[in-house]
Amino acid sequence: VQLQASGGGLVQPGGSLRLSCAASGFTFGSFAMGWFRQAPGKERDYVAAIPWSGGTTDYADSVKGRFTISRDNAKNTVYLQMNSLKPEDTAVYYCAAKPSYGWTSRQSAYDYWGQGTQVTVSS
Questions:
Q1: The pLDDT of residue 105
Q2: How many CA atoms lie within 13 A of 98 on its CB side?
Q3: Can you tell me the distance from the alpha carbon of 98 to that of 56, in angstroms, rounded to the nearest whole number?
Q4: What pLDDT sits at residue 102?
Q5: How confident is the model at residue 100, as a pLDDT?
Q6: How confident is the model at residue 68, as a pLDDT?
Q7: Which is nearest to 21 in space by CA: 58, 53, 60, 69?
Q8: Are 80 and 93 in contact (CB under 8 A)?
Q9: Which long-range contacts (CB under 8 A, 24 or more apart) does 41-48 make?
Q10: What is the pLDDT of residue 101?
Q11: What are phi and psi of 36, to 5 degrees?
Q12: How is residue 60 annotated by DSSP?
């Protein structure tokens, strides 16, 4: 099982980034997917999630209206489009896979985790 996150980098406040997470080694279309992030010195927090069908999505209040999660089951990939980035969005971003349909913000429900990609928002 592998979740390979990519797309992080340094961006100015107000800018955009698109994260990708390529999955392999499991039946991607049977897993809900989530994004989480961990800022320096803080606990890992929930960002967004999407069910296996790509239906109704969910977001943390801190990113609602700025971030969009999506998935392409044909490519075994989940995305996180991040717009209007703020310095407080600086963190390592992780993708995770949860067996069964529905999303949840509860980290313990996710079986597989990627290695993380660094996002830094700074001028």
A1: 94
A2: 22
A3: 16
A4: 86
A5: 82
A6: 98
A7: 69
A8: yes
A9: 42/91, 44/94, 44/107, 46/105, 46/107, 47/80, 47/93, 48/80
A10: 77
A11: -130, 165
A12: -
- Which tokens hold the place of 8? 């992080």
Structural contact between residues 57 and 47, judged by C-beta atoms closer than 8 angstroms: no
| Chain position carrying tokens 């913000």 | 105
Whole-number Cα distances in Å, 100 to 39, 56, 95: 28, 15, 16
Tokens of 60: 């943390």
Residues of the chain with pLDDT under 50: none
Q: Report the residue count for the chain.
A: 123
Residue type, position 68, single letter: T
The amino acid sitting at 61 is D
Token pair 């800022």 is at which residue?
A: 39
Query: For residues 89 and 9, what is the distance between their CA atoms, to the nearest angstrom?
Result: 12
